[in-house]
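Table S7 (text form). Paired inputs.
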Amino acid sequence: MYKTKSIYTEVALKSIMENFSKEEKILSVPEELKIKAACFVTLHTVNGELRGCIGTLEPFRDNLYEEIWGNAKSAAFGDPRFPSLKEEELEEIEISVDVLEEAQKVEKIEELDPKIYGVIVSSRGRRGVLLPDIDGVESVEEQLSIARLKGGIGAGENADIYKFRVKRYH
């Protein structure tokens, strides 16, 4: 069985396991999860390949515990890029939870660093997001290009850019 290293990933794992074994929510929510915060839950295979990633840019549930619980389910069973996770895959996935700090508008591209900041690229109701410190993303240009692509925003199209930091838990 997959071993969690933090309360954040424990909550994510319990959420996913609920679909297979009727795992129940933790009855008393730990203090650090009572805050309102946005988060992303990411699943990778043991080979490092993305297996699911869903998140929120603003918190909309009652607390971080509920945010993780919902996003973990969505990452495992609702990411349209992947089939639903199967129970036998549980031993072969690694879970991370990124808790987002509030996004700040970028005035100059020089403010960005793909190892430190995630980005949100927004234009006319569309937006693309890329978390920080993604394997293989080495430059600001590459990070922005991927975020634009995810949001369906053309390279020459005017867009607002926001940056945010995360605290990543494994």
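Next pair, protein 2 of 2.
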Amino acid sequence: MNREQKQELVSELHGLFGEVSTVVVAHYSGLTVADLESLRKQMRAVGASFRVTKNRLTRIALEGTKFDGLSSLLTGPTGMAVSADPVAAAKAMVEFAKTNPKLIILGGVMDGNALDVDGVKALASLPSLDELRAKLVGMLQTPATRVATVLSQPGAGVARVLSAYATKGEAA
């Protein structure tokens, strides 16, 4: 890479770090190209991405961002998973690491808060933003359904009583 290409990469990464909320760093040594493609595919499926960049250039791009604490993790063959959803990148990395022990999660940062390996795993166990939205909508709809059922029950009860009196009157 020449100097201009390096500057473009640094500015591109700096812009990326301004758009995302979570970055997870891992060592990928020993993974095949097919494994990395599989990881990238899983990342894309959840709205995240996985990048391998030069550590020195990444450290420069991290300066002045909320992910500045990641600089100490950037040693050796590292890759970064990034996502706007706070949970997506961590969840995809942890799921992939379960089946591929050569991917070693080092840590991460979520909205300026540093995470160790256990923190990334805990973050991955949380429901995603879409799952939380679905649960919230379900919780909001359930009371409305219950209210409608309760309100319709007295009317149905009155109708049954009137029907019983009507059939009693006909029988007499």
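The first strand starts at residue 22 and ends at 27.
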